[in-house]
């Protein structure tokens, strides 16, 4: 009976420890890029030009960076999945999400005001597929809306009469090569107070070590 209890406890603790380790975030930083396909009347005033007519100039560029949890990337066959970006200790808002358009440039970050949705990083069958991000912003007295849906984005001027004009639209480079310069993000070391209770994972590993060091005798009182 004692051996049965010992084995059962060891198995349960070990499974708990494994589950806790698997749930640990794996933060990665990466760069991404894209281009501008079409432009409207206000595009030049915002420093935007079509990429294929700009010959690599800044006005035709789209670029940015993102910090995401690699452990949350879905597997193949899961379809399109948006994973919300979130604050990470030790990471600035511009490290978590930053995207720039054109030569001025127009810059947008995690934590900006006027965000209507997102930012979320999007994967399709486990492969990078762009972002979900919708934000209204005001520039030179005019209100605009940036809408990113996967690999495609649009920027529109929202007129006072509830109509809108296209300013620019474009794409992001997606797929297996869409996220470049990937690197692990080092979390700052946690400062533990002297009276802090150890994390469950630590306790689990300690118990596993105790169970492996020798038999545990249980006293059963009838």
What can you tell me about this protein's structure?
The protein has helices spanning 2-22, 51-54, 93-96, 200-213; strands at 27-39, 61-69, 80-84, 97-101, 106-109, 115-124, 127-139, 142-150, 152-158, 164-172, 180-184. By secondary structure, the chain is α+β, with helices and mostly antiparallel strands. Strands 1, 2, 3, 4, 5, 6, 7, 8, 9, 10 and 11 form an 11-stranded antiparallel β-sheet that branches. A hairpin with a 5-residue loop joins strand 9 (152-158) and strand 10. The radius of gyration is 25 Å and the shape is globular. Residues 8-21 and 216-222 have low confidence and may be disordered.
Rg, Å, rounded? 25 Å
| Fraction of residues in β-strands | 35-45%
Uncertain spans, ≥5 residues at pLDDT below 50?
A: 8-21, 216-222
Helix content: 10-25%
Number of strands: 11
């Amino acid at each position: 009976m004692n051996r049965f209890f010992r084995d059962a406890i060891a198995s349960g603790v070990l499974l708990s420890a494994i589950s806790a380790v698997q749930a640990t975030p794996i933060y990665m930083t990466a760069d991404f890029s894209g281009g501008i396909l079409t432009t409207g009347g206000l595009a030049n005033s915002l420093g935007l030009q079509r990429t294929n007519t700009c010959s690599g100039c800044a006005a035709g560029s789209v670029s940015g960076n993102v910090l995401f949890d690699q452990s949350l990337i879905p597997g193949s066959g899961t379809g399109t999945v948006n994973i919300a970006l979130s604050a990470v200790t030790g990471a600035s808002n511009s490290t978590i999400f930053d995207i720039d358009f054109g030569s001025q440039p127009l810059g947008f970050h995690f934590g900006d005001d006027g965000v209507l949705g997102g930012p979320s990083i999007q994967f399709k069958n486990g492969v990078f597929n762009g972002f979900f991000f919708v934000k209204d912003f005001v520039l030179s007295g005019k209100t605009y809306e940036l809408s990113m849906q996967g690999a495609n984005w649009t920027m529109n001027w929202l007129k006072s009469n509830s109509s809108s004009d296209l300013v620019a639209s474009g794409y992001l480079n997606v797929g297996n090569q869409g996220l470049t310069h990937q690197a692990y993000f080092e979390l700052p070391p946690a400062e533990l107070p002297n009276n802090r209770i150890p994390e469950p994972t630590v306790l689990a590993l300690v118990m596993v070590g105790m169970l492996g060091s020798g038999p545990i005798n249980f006293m059963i009182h009838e």
